[in-house]
Amino acid sequence: MASRAEQKARTRHLLIDSWLQIIGSGTNFAAISLREVAKTAGVVPTSFYRHFDDMDELGVAAVDELGLDLRRLMRGPFDAAQPLDEVLREWVAVYQDYVLKNTDLVQFVNQARTGGSSSLREAIDHELDFFRTRLAGALAEAMPGLPAGDRSTVAQLILAVLVENTTALLALPAKSAARRAELEEGLERKLQVVLLGAAQLGGGPVSKPRRRASAS
Question: Dihedral, CA atoms, 65, 69, 72, 73, nearest 10 degrees?
Fold first, then answer.
């Protein structure tokens, strides 16, 4: 039998998953009630308070989950010996897979980034700051001649491109392989342009973007 701590953790995740499921059905996160989340999770409303003080704290917990996922995506040393276009292609594919497999969570964060409470926006900003820092660290390995201040600027530009692409991915029609491939190629090229500009600031040579063969 599961321990009490394991049961508590399971219920906590069930509440988060149920909340994200409601968001995935098209409801704005700000309009979802505690009772609706508890009902979807199959627990009584009073059980909610054993895990979260309010809906805002539940939202912050969901942001924390996204943060852990980002750390997994960014884990591991940057392989500076690998051609940059290959690094971008692999990373973009992993990123798009994650967004499309976790649309409810990503949709919530996308909404809350500008329309959430101050605590939610602070939690999201914290995770984005981590992401920017990790990107800047990867740039330090890939472009050792790029000044630290410029690395931070380039990382910010990369993040802005990713946020824009995330919004487009979330609007992607189901089973639209052609549109996904188009977004993936477009993202690779945008990131290449950013990095080509970084190279002009002293980061060293970067391979120019290569066009893919047209899908049949």
Answer: -160
